Amino acid sequence: MATIAILGLGAMGQALAARLLTQGHAVTVWNRTRGKAMALAAKGAREAASAAEAVAASDIAVLCVLDYAAAAAVIDDAAPALAGRTLVNLTNGTPAQARAAAEHAAGLEAAYLDGGIMATPPMIGGEHALILYSGSKTTFDAHAATLEGLGTARYLGADAGLASLHDLALLSGMYGLFAGFFQATALVDSEGIGAGEFLKLLVPWMTAMMGELPGYAEKIDSGDHRVGVVSGLGMQTASLGNILTAISEQGVATDLLAPMLDLFRRRLGPGTADEDISGVFELIRRTRAGD
Ligand code: NDP
After folding, report:
1. Cα 114 to the chain's mean position, in Å?
2. Tally of domains in the chain
């Protein structure tokens, strides 16, 4: 069993602490605003008066606050106690912020892992909870068994920014899915069809369309968007144009889908009508040296 500090008792910090207590770990908790530790204290947590005191009582400090500005403030407060300990930062942020925090922790002689939580608080510890980690492999391996208790622990590499990169990329996919749902539902709503009713058609359709992704991925990885094309960019630009015309005619806003048609039209030119729509990836990807 480990001795663990949970720094930050928002909805997520509370869930992490509760889970670790259930698993029998010795948990010390701290939150900027007092009064949030009562339920955890009843389950056996000890409340520390400062972040430094919580860290000093523990081998691992799990930091989970609103953002990296808040995380930096807590790390500064806890700095005197961090040397020789492990800081696991599960605060949501950018890859650049994660890398800066890793450097800061190294300067304080703390081992550092950055994490991205792909779960809501009630999911913590459950079978669908996934937490992405990056940073020192040695540190991850040393604490993997403890971290697995919070959810499937997936280590992504030594670059501390990798967990955040994957976290934000997964969320980008999620928001794209939600955007499609909102746009499609607004279209049928224009004729009085309810969202719940429409879902019966939409979910199987979207599930079937997920089957297209491996083909697109292959084209993106090879850079060749002309292999095995069955629905070319020319046809799909006309089709998406029809969709946006219909959306406008129905009095529905086109905001969520219109940027995709702009990309299709920008990509469409002499010789690209027969390539796949995965070609639009070339318009949004970062240009690499040699391209
Ligand atoms: P909450 O809004 O519930 O809690 C925010 C926490 O941050 C509180 O403990 C708050 O302390 C603390 N905080 C804010 N500013 C500061 C500061 N300047 N100094 C010290 N502490 C500060 O957020 P969650 O617990 O839900 O989220 C925490 C992290 O987990 C976020 O980065 C979030 O993106 C991530 N996350 C959350 C998920 C969710 O569904 N909730 C899902 C996946 C990730 P105080 O009580 O004093 O205000």
Report:
1. 12
2. 2
